[in-house]
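User: Quick sanity check before I run a bigger batch. Here is a single chain. Can you write out its predicted 3D structure?
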Amino acid sequence: MEEQPGLSDQYRTASPWPVFVALGLALSEVGIFIGLFPVAVFGLVLFGGSIAGILTESGYTDRPWPTLLAVGGILASLAIGIALVQVPMADITLANVGEGELLTRLVAVVVAGVVMTAMGGVASILEQTSA
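Assistant: Done. Predicted structure follows.
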């Protein structure tokens, strides 16, 4: 008699990635809306990394690094575009990052995008050189 009826080796176990997607999205929202820079950056990096992990695990991509590069590039591009449209040009300096709430939040998103792009690029290069 089987110990676990109805289960076999053909069915996969549950994936841990949805928990990390939800946690990353929640942390990034809290960090961006409250203005906690490190929490926002960590949450967005966790969110982007989880998206790359899900797509790799489900077989849509072979490696997570190109997805991480794409998510980071999209985040950084969107944040820069919003900053150019919504923030007056005279206020776009790093000296004003702590003062302007919108600019500070957009800089957090850009930093997260740059971190993800750097992680994806370095990991891709390391993977190619070690193979």
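The first helix runs from residue 17 to 34.

User: Great, the batch can go ahead then.
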